[in-house]
Amino acid sequence: MSARTARLHEIEPIDVAGVHWRPLRRTLGITAFRTNAYSASAGEQLIEPHSEDDEEEMYVVVAGHATFTVAGEDIDAPAGTVVLCPEPADHRSAVAIADGTLALAVGNRPGGAGPPSAWEHRFAATPAAEAGDHEQAYAIAAAGLEDHPEDANLLYDLACYSGLAGERERALEHWRQALAADPLARQWAAGDPSPIRFATPCSRRTASQASELRSSGCLRLRGPQCVACPDLPSQQLEQFSSRARCPRRPPGPARSRVLSRES
Q1: Is the pLDDT confidence value at 239 over 70?
Q2: Greater confidence, 200 or 25?
Q3: What is the mean pLDDT of the chain?
Q4: Is residue 93 within 8 Å of 69, Cβ to Cβ?
């Protein structure tokens, strides 16, 4: 089995520096980031008083209840609380106020994790898309272009948001980029339950424009018409506009494939 597992409460604690240290990193052989666990009973020190030289630290209270003190400020931290210390020089400590308190600590140098993954920008745009604010969804997702200019999934979503916002030229440009980055974009469009509205309206589309769209891989063309075209009968337009939200690719195998590739 390639996965390694550990139960925090089963890792043998080592009493050192006035705390009960549970060496999670050493137990699992983690090398990508620094992480450990700490346990304490009520009134005991959970995290020793200290500051860092060059690390951003995050603490997650997994069980119990604690009081953190960071840069002189007390923070009530019941189970489920996340305490981030972004400034390495800030003095921090924690005391348990309930038996069975357990905390997970994760640290790394600021910026050490690298830029956010492309999928994070795409997922962050989902609330705006669900609310129908496709221009805002585009703005949120487009922030990922700086670090991921050739990510096909990001480009595809940007094409869809642009089309739904009425930005046809921008949508078509992102669609071409997505297709160049990954020819599978054709398949995503084929199974897309929400039309990509970036084709020129049928009544104003010339034969050469239609040919260009077909050659670029636009799977929204159906014979002489485009399913997203505003020249369609109102009843058919209503049928398409009432379909599922953006992002278009439904959860399931396609989404799992994206996650497994990008995570």
Answers
A1: no
A2: 25
A3: 79
A4: yes
Domain 118-236+245-255 CATH class label: mainly alpha
User: Which residue spans within 12-151 are E strands per DSSP?
Assistant: 14-16, 19-22, 34-40, 45-50, 56-63, 65-70, 73-78, 82-85, 92-96, 101-108
pTM, to two decimals = 0.69
Q: Mark residue 231 as left, alpha or beta (left: phi above 0; alpha: psi -120 to 50; beta: remaining).
A: alpha
With a CB cutoff of 8 Å and minimum separation 6, the contacts of 134 are: 128, 161, 162, 164, 165, 246
**CB atoms inside a 10 Å sphere around CB 212:** 14
Partner residues linked to 69 by β-bridges: 74, 93
Contacts of 128 (CB under 8 A, 6+ apart): 134, 136, 137, 140
Of 5, 23, 9, 6, give the one whose Cα is nearest residue 100: 9
Check whether domain 8-108 has CATH 1.20.1730.10, yes or no: no
Per-domain boundaries in the chain: 8-108, 118-236+245-255
Q: Which amino acid is at 28?
A: L
- Give the DSSP H/E element, type plus range, for residue 226: strand 225-226
Confidence category of residue 255, pLDDT binned at 50, 70, 90: very low
Q: Residue 223: is its pLDDT beyond 60? A: no
Task: Indicate if 118-236+245-255 has the same CATH topology as 8-108.
Answer: no
The tens digit of pLDDT for each residue in 63-115 reads 999 999 999 999 999 999 999 999 999 999 999 999 999 999 999 998 888 89
